[in-house]
Amino acid sequence: MKRLFLFVLLATAIFSCKKSNENWQQAAANPEFLRRTQSQLTESIIHDIFAPPVSSRIYMYSALAAYEALAAGNTNYQSMVGQLKGFKKVAKPEAGKEYSYPVAAVRAYLTIGKNLTFAQEIYVDFEKKLEEDYKATGIPSEVYERSIAFGDSIAASIMNYSKGDNYKQTRGFRYTVTQKKGTWVPTPPAYIDAAEPYWSKIRPATLDTSSQFMPPRPYEYDMTKGSKYYDMVMDVYNTINNLTEEQRNIANFWDCNPFKMNITGHAMFATKKVSPGGHWMAIVTQTSRQLKADIYQTSEAYLLTSMAIFDGFISCWDEKYRSIKVRPETVINELVDKNWQPVLQTPPFPEYTSGHSVISGAASVALSSVLGDNVAFADSSEMQYGLPVRNFKSYKDAAEEASISRLYGGIHFRPALDLGLEQGRKVGGWVITKVKTRKK
User: Fold this and answer.
1) Above 90 in pLDDT, residue 208?
2) CATH of the structural domain 24-163, one choice from 3.30.70.3270, 1.20.144.10, 1.10.287.990, 3.30.450.20
3) Is the pLDDT of residue 157 over 70?
4) What GO MF annotations does this protein's record show (predicted)?
5) Residues sharing a CB contact under 8 Å with residue 59, sequence separation 6 or more, in sequence order
6) Is residue 80 within 8 Å of residue 161, measured between CB atoms?
7) Closest CA relative to residue 304, chosen from 125, 119, 84
8) Span 177-204, mean pLDDT?
9) How many Å apart are CA 302 and CA 213, to the nearest integer?
10) Which has fewest Cβ within 10 Å: 210, 262, 320, 430?
11) Which option is the CATH number for 182-434: 3.30.420.40, 1.10.260.40, 1.20.200.10, 1.10.606.20?
């Protein structure tokens, strides 16, 4: 009888330990840890006022770091080593040791984000709360510390990879505005210099070349009445002059201009906003939560979406600084109506093609490949700027509205939207064909 009692006691203890282990592993794998970290990174990017292409680089490397940490501990997912341009190696966990790969992933994401942004003080309270919440899961201290160290190793690998993408080299390149008729010049109110004119020199994640998906040639400058170019200009002018309330709401919702400047007398100050890429990363956060995606699928969605956005900006900026097309505001003020103003502030780079159209097309294709084609969702990402929630039938639906918003904002001609959306979809399609996250 005594032996039976001891056996039952031992079995109960083993079962309790196993259940306890399963409990903390499950708690530490809560995808909200990763979603919170992604949102925190966006706050830092907004604070530092990065140009939209630069923001896309930060998101992509951060998402890659998280994904690689998770893939190391899940046999259903495979590394991006050998799949991305120039990505040849990544840190590996120590054999025979126990890790929480989700903890390592969040650590890697956060570490890359901190390394690529400036405002380190923004992360202090966040990191403290993150650590408290992890320890509240019951994770053994040695497993936690080992997982944190592995996350740091992954981050070091990704930082090393990032150093070969030409970002540092392009910081010193100078750009001269051409005086040719119909080409881009800085616009009111701040007349900011051209943003990232050499972004096409950045190493893509998957594209063969930055010009791989070059769009059709834009209309030649010709303000003769009845010309295609003239009609295109007047389309913007008349649209803004007859804008409906709903069209204005759409324009404001998708503004996503981190460069917006306000002038009061002699004072000038910035209104900080989320970038186009940041808006789409927020959509990933919202819809992965809505669909109850686990941390692996959530990370996969962040990775492919950010990669499509990153390559989308490279493709778009390649064309912008090839054709160097003038903005509607410049042409209309000069030749149609000197007092005319767009609804949105014109961003500081050439018109063709539309960056928001390209990256929205790319992001919608990539995100659909992970979370589904017809995911209806309510987008609340702009509520912090006083804008209401907007509802969409699908990611494709959201991308199309993001694109047309630039016409309603008065900052793009229609061809740059339609052809930009097409360009972006090609980029997104290429990314999901070129990169395989799941093992067969």
Assistant:
1) yes
2) 1.20.144.10
3) yes
4) peroxidase activity
5) 41, 45, 277, 278, 281, 302, 306, 309, 310
6) no
7) 84
8) 96
9) 23
10) 262
11) 1.10.606.20
